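seq as requested:
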Amino acid sequence: MPIGFQSYSPCISTRSTHMKVSLIGTGKMGTGLAAVMAAAGHEVTLGARDITKASMLAASLGRGITGTDIETASQCSEVVILALPYGAVAEVLSQTDGLAGKVVVDISNPITADFQDLLLGHSTSAAEEIQKLLPKARVVKAFNTIFSNLLETSARQDKTLQVFIAGDDADAKATVAELARTARFEPVESGPLRNSRFIEPIGEMNIHFGFFLGRGVGIAPAWVQV
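struct tokens:
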């Protein structure tokens, strides 16, 4: 874990090899990532507008996961994963204090309601727009090309799926890469945050393969070295 995290939150774990991770959002991606991160030994909090829902969902997942409101969850973790549709991010972030110094992971694909097209591209990306909303946070793009049913390690069988990681802060990317490794993914260094403009269309293409081209959701893209 990169040096310096101790100063970012009053609720940092004292365990040197594990991190405190908050998932903002209680959909399939949020709950799936919460479960796999907790199984990897990290201390996980689910944050939602509805505290009762977050608490009940956390209890149903077990593995020491706790549930609370968005602001508390975001303050008690080193890493905050925004497990939200892109369209919901701005309103949810207004319930935080700006997440200064935090590693903030954007897993969204900025897609239309019918899943057929992108809302952003070429000149910006969801991750870059989130960085604008959180100028003092360290935003990293990751996990946007993984379907929720493949988050649990048992669903991947003997396959190691890749997670493309882009960001402008080297330590933040290293932290997210370590989270991916502990969850048995292969992190792929994908350059600066602006490269999210290319990674997000890969996520949309994966959706087309899965839902519109008959491949189903047991798929994930990979960059193959030959």
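The two ends are 31 Å apart (CA to CA).
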